[in-house]
Specification:
With about 290 residues, the protein is α/β, with parallel strands linked by helices. The protein is about 45% helix and about 15% strand. The structure holds coenzyme A and magnesium ion (MG).
């Protein structure tokens, strides 16, 4: 299991940030060719990124390319599809067809370059009204998709809402993404960025809210955001101990043909047991087992 508590974005055109991003404790790094790069800088950023990738070793970032309807999309893919990256982040995805078109282009490059088919994952950003309403179809559109990500700032602009995360429409969009992901059988989504990177208190409030709604992680954009967000999405020792009790009790009961049991005075059924299993798996992936 690959933890995805934090996805740290860095502009692909900024060599200092793009290399520093790997040293800051984020679970995954996303090098961005899209919104973090000015139009006039697209070609330079793409070339810089292509020159950095071979030197990254085991880090394997995700790369956010420009959208499939932009003039840069195909060149972006040509510059980055390789074993040096984990996958492609697709911005402003509005329907399954966009993922399918991207997948075809990625698969062709994989084949040309001797990568195993399906080597690269696709992480779609849902950040428009159309994308939100198509979220379940998007989630089902490719076996390369592990989860969806929410682009909150672009979403607010697209629907004409004002303010920030405190706007009630955020709640609706987040809830929809969690439900659509679950319905499609993919992993829980990743929450939008908290742009005010000096406001750690506000960041933690927003992150707790996202976690409670079922998100597995959050986009971060600044070194100061990594540790607070990792902390929120890391199971506490108490949560982990309880999850272990639930998994053990449930497995014993299941072996006896019983599907409803109680642990610590609380009824435990399949969904709760599943959530407990995810907590145990995340803890194992984070190396918390020995703690
Ligand atoms: N990744 C890696 N390093 C980063 C970083 C990031 N996202 N953001 C800041 N840093 C580094 C800076 O380089 C600086 O380190 P240095 O002194 O060793 O060079 C240090 O952290 C402190 O940075 P600070 O001066 O507080 O911020 P800044 O003015 O350099 O950068 C932003 C502020 C917002 C421009 C920057 O955080 C950023 O580019 N974030 C990502 C934006 C992005 O990708 N947006 C698109 C997706 S939403
Ligand atoms: Mg954007």
């Amino acid at each position: 299991m690959q933890p995805r508590r934090t996805l740290l974005f860095a502009p692909a055109g900024d060599e200092r940030k793009a290399t520093k991003a790997f040293t800051l404790g984020a679970d995954l790094v996303v090098l961005d060719l899209e919104d973090a790069v000015a139009h006039a800088e697209k070609d330079r950023a793409r070339k810089l990124l292509a020159s950095l990738l071979p030197g990254l070793g085991p880090h394997r970032p995700l790369v956010r390319v420009n959208g499939i309807t932009t003039p840069w999309f195909r060149e972006d893919l040509r510059a980055v599809v390789s074993a040096a990256i984990r996958g492609i982040v697709l911005p402003k995805v509005e329907d399954a067809a966009a993922v399918e078109a991207a997948e075809e282009a990625i698969a062709t490059l994989e084949a040309e370059r001797g990568l195993p088919p399906g080597a690269l994952e696709i992480l779609p950003f849902v950040e428009t009204a159309r994308g939100l309403l198509a979220a379940e179809a998007i989630a089902r559109s490719s076996t390369r998709i592990r989860c969806l990500a929410f682009g909150g700032m672009d979403f607010l602009a697209d629907v004409g809402a004002s303010g920030g995360a405190e706007n009630g429409i955020f709640l609706y969009a987040r809830a929809h993404l969690v439900v659509a992901s679950r319905a499609a059988g993919i992993d829980a989504p990743i929450d939008t960025v908290y742009p005010d990177f000096r406001d750690t208190e506000g960041l933690v409030v927003e992150t707790l809210r996202a976690r409670a709604m079922g998100f597995q992680g959050k986009i971060v954009i600044h070194p100061a955001q990594v540790e607070p967000v990792n902390r929120v999405f890391t199971p506490t020792p108490e949560e982990l101990a309880q999850a272990r009790r639930i998994v053990a009790a449930f497995e014993a009961a299941e072996a006896d043909g019983v599907a409803v049991i109680q642990v610590d005075g609380r009824m435990i059924e399949y969904p709760i047991a599943q959530r407990a299993r995810r907590i145990v798996a995340l803890a194992a992936a984070l190396g918390l087992d020995s703690a």
